[in-house]
Specification:
The chain is an alpha+beta fold and 267 residues long. The chain has a single domain, classed as Ribonuclease Z/Hydroxyacylglutathione hydrolase-like (Metallo-beta-lactamase, Chain A). It contains six helices and 19 strands. The chain is globular, with a radius of gyration of 18 Å.
Amino acid sequence: MTFFHCATCGAQFTPSDAPPDRCPICDDARQYVPPSGQAWRTLDDLRSAHRNEIRPEGAYDGVGTNPPFAIGERALLVPAGDRFVLWDCLPLVDDEVADEIERRGGLAAIAISHPHYYTGMADWAHRFDCPVFLHADDREWITRPDDAIELWEGETRDLGHGLTLIRCGGHFDGSTALHWQHGPRAGGALFPGDALQVAADRRHVAFMYSYPNLIPMKRADVRAMRDRVARFEFEDVFGFSRGRNIVGGGRAAVDRSFARWLAAVEA
C-alpha cells in the first residue's frame, strides 16, 4: 500500500495499491487539473526529491519545501505557550526539520485554513502527537481521514494563548483565518490563508472564489467576511507563501481592501 499525493495540490490520500482515479480538490472549480492531466507523486518520491527548511518570516519562522511542490505554500510556527501551532501544512514531513521543531518545544496543534493546504496533515499530526483543527463545513474535502482530525463548528474556536480561529467563509464554506492577539510585534497578527489573500503590492488583500481560475467571490460572502473579522485588531497580515505579508498597518489595509473591492463590484 502506497501513500499517493496529488501533484497539483499536494493532497495526500488514504494508502492504496494504485493511484486514485481523481483528485476531487483539483476537479473542483477553485483548483484545476493541468492540461497534461492528473498526476501523482508517492511519499517516497517526495522524500527523495524534496526537503523542508525553516526560514525566518518576519517575526515568525516559516517552514517550506525546497524545491517547492504542488502549490508551494509555506507553513508558519505560531507560538502557543512553550510549543507552537503549525498554521497551514505541507505535504512532506522530514526528520531534520521535525527534530528541530521538537527541539524548540514541538507542536501543540495544527490548524489549516482550507482544503488546498490539507496535504500531509495526518503525517504531521502523527509525528508530533497533536490534533489537526479543520472547520466542519469542509469535511467533504478530507482525502485521508484520520483520528487526529478534530472538526470544529461555529464562527470562532479559542485555541488558548491568545490564538483564535475565525471562520471567514467565501473561498470555501469553512475557510479559516488564525488571529494571534499577543503577537511578537505590538498589535497582533492575522493569518488568513486564502480567504483574504495578500496582494502583490503588499498593501491590500484580495477575495476570490477561485484564484487560479479567476472566479470572483460573491458580494454577500465578502460582506460577511468583513463583518466576521471586524472585531479583531491586528497590525500584521501573513499570507500563504514566503514574503507575501503586510507588516504594519494590516488592519487599515484589510479595511481599505474591503471598501475598494465592494466599490469596484457595485459600481
